[in-house]
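Schema walkthrough. Field components (list of strings):
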Amino acid sequence: MTRRILVIDDDAAVRETIMQTLDERGYEVITAENGALGLAASRRARPDLAITDIVMPVMEGLQTIRELRRERPAMPIVAISCGSHAGRNVLLDIARQLGAWEVLVKPFDLDELAARVECCLSPRWVSP
Amino acid sequence: VERVYDAVLHLHQPFVVYDAQRRLVAWNKAFANLHRESDGSCILRKRMSFDEIAEFRFRTGFYSAAPDDSSVVTSASGLHHRARGGIPYQLRDGRWMYVDRYDLPDGGNVGIWLDITAVKRGEADRLAIEDQLHHAQRLESLGTLAGGIAHDLNNTLVPILGLTKLMMKRLAQDSREHTNLAIIVQAGERARDLVRQILAFSRKEAPTRLSVDFASLVRDSLKMIRASIPATIDIAEAIETVPPVFGDPSQLHQIVINFVVNASHAIGDSMGTISVALTAAVPAAEGNGRAWICLSVRDTGCGMDEATRQRAFEPFFTTKPAGEGTGLGLSVVHGIVVQHGGKIRVESEVGHGTRFDVYLPTIASEEQQQAAEAAQ
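Field assembly_structure (string):
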């Protein structure tokens, strides 16, 4: 069964890059350009996993994560954001506290993103 | 009149009267004290010409430096005022004087000297504070700007790095296209590292505060960096055991790395030594009553001139050729040290090398400080 992944990012080039990466690995990818649209897409398409940016217009990422967690408690969420010193990023720390399973600092290695996605979706992963 | 005369005679401010031919008519004790030979004898006498007085002043180095004011002319023939207005100038004893001149009805004039040393000192202090504030604001605004740019750059780098790598996978490894894309990835990674530096510099959040054993941290950092320093450069360690400091280990690590990398760049391809020392023995004068530890990084490299030294911590300031230095290394260090309540001292001599001393407060001293603040 093809896994469906929702990518939420306001930057079209970032969406496209992630989409191609995951598409190549056999995932079905749907995209949304902000949190509000992402939430609507989540309701409509029932993705297996969501990747969301943090700093976005309309509905920013932390709120998006909160809403996604409420509506789909079991769905893994990967938060991505622009990095800070030595990989520490306060927004990503908060994202993790809000329930993001994985956090990645931009610009991340796409192989690593794919690996994290795969890990989240593998059956041995136990929801935190 | 008698009492006015008496008051003027004993005034602390030098006071003098000249006639229309610029000859000495009257003066008080304070003025006389300014015109004594080394044996203590006063040179002044009635009807003495101003040129003679000027000659004495010129001969004895009356002024600590020739006033930069064009209204005063220094020459072998004497030193005299061209203008009537008041001129501030410094005497060789360090005092600043302001001479006020008033014309008299008979064509002569009165000179009253005002000691403006305190005013001058206050002005210098104010200028220094303004300068510091200006510098801080500049760093602050550059940081905000840099943070904003860095955010967008990181987004931009996702497709540049990501899509390039995707394309590489589809091309034969030995193809020219593959090689070109590898160059793009390298350039992108360089940009990514630069952005990381900028973010480190612009970061506003409070750093992690842990109890850090700085001695082992410095040793670890040096172990890590050794491999990337040319073999012609020797690293001499003198790391003493020091009391713990409160700090962000990754940031403190960054201080060591940036200093050592900088030092190695200053030495370049020649032979040289980077001496890294850590000690808790900070002179009382430096300590300001608190306990500090001091990290010193000294190199035998090219050194900095005064102009470079002044700007060494300024973001984006670099002496390296375009494309080689980001100009952020030392400003990052500066930001980290300030966040940790520390301070930096720089000594440098062109051709001989540079020495950076970083002072960080120990945990004990921070607790002491907090207790003192709480007690107030």
